[in-house]
Write a structure and sequence with these properties.
Elements (H helix, E strand, L loop, with lengths): L6 E11 L2 E11 L5 E13 L5 E10 L5 E13 L4 E11 L5 E15 L2 E11 L5 E14 L2 E11 L5 E14 L2 E9 L16
Antiparallel strand pairs: 1-2, 2-3, 3-4, 4-5, 5-6, 6-7, 7-8, 8-9, 9-10, 10-11, 11-12
């Protein structure tokens, strides 16, 4: 019943300049003999431009059976202003293809709008390639964050592909945060057509 270390993560952040940062992360574990071995390594380079746009490239390496590190995934994220009080973030995810080179396999698109001082809306979509190589939306999220004094309410609706290939509401999360007398309380309610331990009702009613 004694605790022992199963994984260990080390992170090094280097500020190359006022607008550039490099982050190196290593994750270690233990092999069958209890010896420390590298499980994963991440290298991230992030830069901020004069107009406020940001770009980061994150490479994830994993060792093969011989211990040689190879790129398992590359994630390129670009964030830039897209109008008054609007911010656009586009992420491309690359993974090794059948020929060994990196190919773009996922896309994440997010738009954040500051509607009012007390209201922020965020829309995001996830796209993947289908069997014919065409981009298909597999998930869409809508998030509203409302602030009233020291209280905050977050309402998120997640739509995913159903068996008919249509985006349908899969889950809805409502999170309420309140602060009083130095004490913070967070309550999250999750609604879904599929409730564990309950009989699924007809239609898409959320419970």
């Amino acid at each position: 019943g004694r605790l022992r270390t199963t994984t260990e993560t080390t992170t090094e952040t280097i500020h190359v300049g006022p607008n550039s940062t490099q982050i190196n992360e290593q994750v270690y574990g233990n092999d069958a003999q209890g010896r420390r071995q590298l499980l994963q390594q991440k290298q991230t380079e992030a830069k901020t431009s004069a107009d406020g746009s940001q770009r980061s490239v994150e490479n994830t390496f994993v060792p093969d059976v011989n211990g040689r590190l190879g790129v398992a995934e590359q994630q390129v994220t670009e964030t830039k202003p897209a109008g008054s009080n609007v911010k656009q973030t586009d992420t491309s995810i690359f993974r090794p293809g059948v020929n060994g080179g990196l190919t773009e396999q996922e896309r994440l698109q997010e738009t954040e709008r500051q509607v009012r001082k007390d209201l922020t809306q965020t829309e995001s979509t996830r796209l993947v390639r289908d069997a014919n190589g065409r981009w298909q939306t597999t998930e869409a999220r809508n998030l509203e964050v409302r602030k009233t004094g020291s209280d905050q309410v977050e309402e998120e609706t997640v739509r995913r592909l159903d068996p008919n290939g249509t985006l349908s509401v899969d889950v809805r999360n409502v999170t309420r945060r309140s602060t009083s007398n130095g004490r913070e309380e967070i309550v999250t309610e999750t609604y879904s057509p599929n409730v564990l331990g309950a009989v699924q009702r007809s239609g898409n009613a959320l419970e």
